[in-house]
User: What shape does this take?
Amino acid sequence: MPKRYMVIVFRHLLTDALALRRPELKENPFVLAAPVKNRVIITAASPLAEQQGAFTGMAVADARAAVAELVVVDDIPGKAAKLLRLLGLWCIRYTPIVSVDLPDGLILDISGCTHLWAGEHGYLKEIVLKLRNAGFDARAAIADTPGAAWAVAHFAVSRPIVEADAQAKAIAGLPPAALRLSDEILERLQKLGFRTIGLLLSIPAQALRRRFGKELLLRLDQALGRAAEYPEPLIPPVPYVERLPCLEPIRNAPGIAIAIEKLLSALCMRLQAEGKGVRKAVLKCYRIDGRTVQTGITTNRGSHSVSHLLKLFELQISKIEPALGIELFVLEVPKVEEMETPQEQLWALDKGLEDTSLAEMLDRVAGKVGSQTIQRFLPAEHYWPERSVKAAKSITEEPETTWPMQMRPMRLLNPPEAIEVMALVPDNPPKLFIYKGKRHNITKADGPERIGREWWRDSGEHRDYYVVEDTDGQRYWVFRSGYYDGGDAQWYLHGYFA
Amino acid sequence: MAVEKREMIERLQKNILQWEGYRPPPVGMRNLVGLGLVEAAFPNGVFPVGAIHELVCGSSEQAAASGGLVTGILSVLMQQGGVCVWIGRARRLFAPALTLFGVEAHRVIFISLTKDKDALWVMEEALKCPGLKAVVCELGEINFKQSRRLQLAVEQSRVTGFVLRNAADKLGSTSCAARWQVRSLPSADMDGLPGIGYLRWQVDLLKVRNGQTGSWILEWQEGRFIPVEELTLIEERQVG
Assistant: This one.
């Protein structure tokens, strides 16, 4: 079967995508710009901006001079590739083989697909209209080779469909830039007066090779169909989903456990082969009364161990209500993680927080009592006691600073509790304090340690902390809020020392 | 004849200890957790790791003191690296305090729970995990059956468990290896300097399985326990 290719080109890919996300930009001419060698250069201009004289490659300062109300948006590198990939995945509904052609196009292998849309004309119209309705300024062309289709899509004004074996005629009138050549060769061609591809075709290949190298001949052959070209097709990601239909509806816990085990062993086989681990899994149970019940697990670290994941699901089985019976189980994994394959060890080493058995234990605890109960603390650079620790984000996060070596109480009261205090001299440590009706006579005290309020965060008085010891030898952390002379100095108990 | 008999009895006692799971210490490995003379009260003269210890805390002050003693022991257990789990109630423990006792608080995983039932479940799961050095759990009450479950869990994994019991008024029997009580004592004067000296506790061993009970005064000085003076309270009593 003869091959047919379609090339779609998005002439304003980046600006169209931005205008779709931020419709208010459409009113004004806008450009995307990125800094290049101390100058900010326009990387993409909207149609309105182009009309008014701001083009890709201009410096933003020059463009601002030409277009008064120009809006400049920062360019995100790699955005075009992402957009083209998404558009390419969308195009897979028209043909199974789609490849991305950076910076602004897609190449579709449409051999044998077009009859479903009553020929190539209907096929092309369908895709281009759909894309234009979605807001993209798309043009397309069909030819026997990707090279010819590319040339026609980018440079021809009319007749987007090139008949079979008519590439030479179709591209003869187009400029040499339509051959996807490098700037250096284009410049040389320009100097020598080659204004169309037709002029090149009449010159013997040897002469062309001598003057312009292999690239020109290869591109020419690719466009005319004398050399093959293999664009790299997009492969859509296969979601991690397993299904288990049941002949008889499942109504009891052991049955559900067996179903989960079957699903997990199929899933984990695939994950092991790909070196990935489950971070989050959802089990959907379709009941015969038409309802769906679902339950999920999360893990602290990626896992593809059937026994561990099964243990986590077993904690959830009691929450599944089978009613009249479950006829279909679907296990979905919305979040996976790359996993390092652990080396088997002859003897156990102390791996600390990296230990797999520890992560599995924490997963089970999180499944039973909730992950919010598990915390690790890291030192934070604050003197204010309530802020001197912060919760770690992950199980392996390391502290950025060292723990402070000051005397700190083993147990902290949060919030501090008011106490009544007697002190001999205003700035002395207290002589006795009464907390919850019990009187503590103080024999020894250390202090004060003044901790200032972080005024850029909240307002209020500073604290003067004292470590005090009562006659029984019990040690407390008490503080006075503010100065004495304010009249409202209040004492608080904030913690117990060991 | 009498000497022979005594030797035989000693040998039998050693065998019994071994059958009960107490391993004799390797040569030169006494004073394993830095408690000094206190360790002599335990069978074979070694602090039993891979066992459950319960600490009776009647008040917040006692709980803080018990926390200090446990953290001091943890610092030795975690010296070679490793992680421990601290199961507590609604975040009462203040992490920076652990530094004073030689434990880096980021190597402690805190699990805050309010129900005893959950805390016991989590503790049992944690004790089964061989990747941990120790598990500390603050509980209201624990009965014999629950403590037996914990004991069975540690026999497999050799993790050391500490239970801080809040209810001091109704102490039922448990299968724990030792029952401790820690109380703060007034610190000693430091050469007439004002202020508070080294932290000082009275450490009572109320029950020791196959060992002797007793009472000691310990001080925390420069990162280790120092016995102040040995009180002659060791009773020739075995509690099994």
